[in-house]
Amino acid sequence: MNYLRHVLDHLRKDLRLEWRSRDSINGMLFFALLVVVVFGLAFDPTSYPTTTRQISGGILWVALLFASITALNQSWARELRNQVLEAQRMAPSPASALFLGKAIANMLFVLIVEAVLAPIFIVFFNLHALGNVWLLALILPLGTWALVVNGTFFAALGLRARNRELLLPLLLLPISLPALLAMVQATTGVLTADLDSIQIATWIKQLAGYDIIFTTICILLFETVLNAE
Amino acid sequence: MTWHSFFNLSTMQNRHLLASYATVLIIQGAYVGWIAWNWFRTKNTHH
Amino acid sequence: MEQRNPTLRSVAWLWFGIAIAVLVVGFRQAIFLTPADAAQGDVGRIFYYHVPSAMWSLVFPYVNFIASLFYLYWRKRDPLKALTADAMAIAAAEVSVVYSSICLITGSIWGRAAWGIWWTWDERLTSELLLFLLYVSYLMLRRFSSTGQAQTLAAVISIFAAIDVPIVWMSIRWWRTQHPAPVFFGGPDAGLDKSMMPAFVWNIIGWGIWGIFILIFRFALERRRQLAEQEAALQAIEASLEIPQ
Question: Is there a contact between C214 and B35 if contact means CB atoms under 8 Å apart?
Answer without folding.
Answer: yes
